[in-house]
Specification:
The complex is a heterodimer of chains A (161) and B (273). Chain A has helices at 2-5, 13-40; strands at residues 51-53, 64-68, 73-78, 81-86, 97-99, 104-106, 113-114, 120-122, 131-136, 142-150. Chain A is of the alpha+beta class and 161 residues long.
Chain lengths: 161, 273
Amino acid sequence: MAEETKNNDDVTRRQFFAKLGLGSLSIAAIGTAAFSYQYLEPNVLYEPSPVVNVGKPDRYPLDSVTLDVNNAIYIIHSQQGYFSLSAVCTHLGCLTAWKPELGIIACPCHGSKFDEDGRKIEGPAPKPLPWKRIWINDDGDLLVDRSTDVPPLAPDSFVRV
Amino acid sequence: MAKTVNQRFEALRGTHVWRSIFRSGIGSSTLKRALAIQQNVFLHLFYTKVRTRILGFSATWYLGALTFGTFLLLVATGIPLMLYYHPSVPQAYADTKDLQFVVSSGLFLRNLHRWSAHAMVFLVFAHMFKVFYRGAYRTPREFNWVIGVILLLITLLLSYTGYLLPWDQLAYWAITVGSNIASAVPLFGNKIHFLLLGGNAVNANALLRFYVLHCMILPLTAIFFLAIHFWRIRKDGGLYTHSSEPAVLRTQAANAGGNPGIPTSAATPKEAQ
């Protein structure tokens, strides 16, 4: 008799447990995918600090462009003061070099050219070289934060001694 | 009376141990020879019977077989190279130099690995062009073309990941440039770059990740798809020959009074197993 009164929408015990099982497996699969993704993403990086000490300002004479190869930045002493440029080409990440005879910054990989304010003269680089935050600490050393970009040529982007 | 070498071999093939490994039994009948192929875990991917004409140079140029040959060479030379190579920043470059100048036969193994890698990339492309210009990608072989494209990508990724391992200037800047190309992917570019390198720059994590990809993940993936690639040759009607071309199949079907349609593996029932 119970069979006759059963609604078509009713779920049998077998179907219910099948759905329960598949649902649990799906949740477990999604969870595994999420944990796998998290596992692949390192939480702690043993990379060099973005803040670097580049020494006393008098190391950099007026109107000079100095490439710090190890930190991949330029320290430039201009009439307005000291500022720092990233030396990493905005095209594909090669290390650029200052060409004193031409007065430009050039990339050896694909020929991008920049002026000493970081402005793009010639591609394929899509963007100018970013300016980096620079300041002087209590010991009188210049510090550069390579992880922080500052607006080019803005008064606050320079350090005056 | 002394037995000949051949008689000794026949006796060996009749022993219980031999028969437990190769169950098809001795004999040169067509059935026994077919069973020897069909009951072998590696060879069963292929036909039990192939006409020698189909294996001729003009039909295949052996480009696929040569590509597989270079792959086997790369596995055979890569594993011994792993015994002297540490995927760590202080040691990687020194180990590579040791392999070049200090380890016995290291120079030979490393160069064999290097040149086989170059040859494999060349042969994969040659194989692809041959398949393309002969039209061998057409129905029913279109899925095997897709598998082939996956294998091409795996080959290029194997080449790319192996490029970093010597940890010299060339490797470092090539991977810097290459991984920055990956960041050009819309939306997820920087995420892919970060996950690929295991950090923000090409460093110890990147070296280790590329090593694991190069020595474990990519070769195993390649073997997986290679098995499907070979098996599909049989399932899709065998090696592509002149007689597999649609025009020829249509003519055959018309001559037989059949319906000229899309050629399927059923069109060559004797060869499609």
